[in-house]
Design goal:
Elements lengths: L2 H18 L11 E5 L15 E5 H9 L4 H9 L2 H11 L7 H11 L2
Antiparallel strand pairs: 1-2
Helix pairs in contact: 1-5
Amino acid sequence: MDAIDKRLDTAFSEYVKKRDGKCVACGSHANLECAHVFGRGARSVRWNPLNAVTLCRECHAHDHQDDPNLAMRVAQERLTEHEWERLVRLQGQIVHWTVDDKKELLAWLKL
């Protein structure tokens, strides 16, 4: 992973946590983390705000260990049907991010 990807991951995580303000599963305000609906390997939606929710550390661990669809269920409940269908469609696409694309997204996330 290159340096701009790391900066994007950090900025995206902060954006999602600020947007949600709490764990969207249990309501906790402690130890908040950005949880991807479709994993970060799905590069086409890696930094798409529809593809992430805020979970506390405990719920995020539960999502990865015991209930691997927690983030997906929570996101699906929060999104409109159109947004969900768009996210599902986008996550299956192949995207090649240019450095300029990444810089533009980074600037947008930091607004």
